[in-house]
Design a protein that fits this description.
Blueprint lengths: L3 H10 L19 H11 L14 H10 L20 H10 L16 H18 L2
């Protein structure tokens, strides 16, 4: 299961150099921002989703507001850059992704097929030819 504890392990090892024991999601022997992005992608969300509900919304903003200008020990306290402080950098991350909702179903745009367009054109021509005396 992917949960906030996994991000916190990643954060604990962030920037410690090469060959970390835990947190190297992308396998490049460094725990860095790329690993956070990879973890979030695996979880189906984006940075700024403090409560990991797959949406960046007012709930996440409320969490950030409650933690603002305070030391943080966890991603779910809105420490989105994992620097142990909730500040304007974290607010900027939330602002960049605010409104993303990965729980909404993806719908394909309805695009008529060429055959349909051809038939509609022929019907239109036939209707126009009937109106002539």
């Amino acid at each position: 299961d992917l949960d906030v504890d996994d991000i916190n392990i990643l954060g604990d090892n962030l920037g410690l150099g090469t060959m970390p024991e835990e947190g190297d999601i992308d396998g490049d022997n460094e725990v860095d921002a790329d690993d956070l992005a990879a973890w979030l992608a695996l979880a189906g969300t984006v940075n700024g989703d403090a409560n990991l509900d797959l949406k960046v919304d007012t709930s996440d903003l409320a969490i950030l507001a409650g933690s603002f200008n305070k030391p943080a020990t966890s991603y779910d306290q809105a420490d989105f850059n994992l620097d142990d402080q909730v500040d304007t950098s974290d607010l900027a991350i939330l602002a960049d992704t605010f409104g993303i909702d990965n729980t909404a179903p993806i719908t394909a745009a309805l695009v008529p097929e060429p055959t349909t367009l051809t038939l509609l054109g022929l019907v239109g021509l036939a209707a126009m030819s009937r109106r002539r005396p």
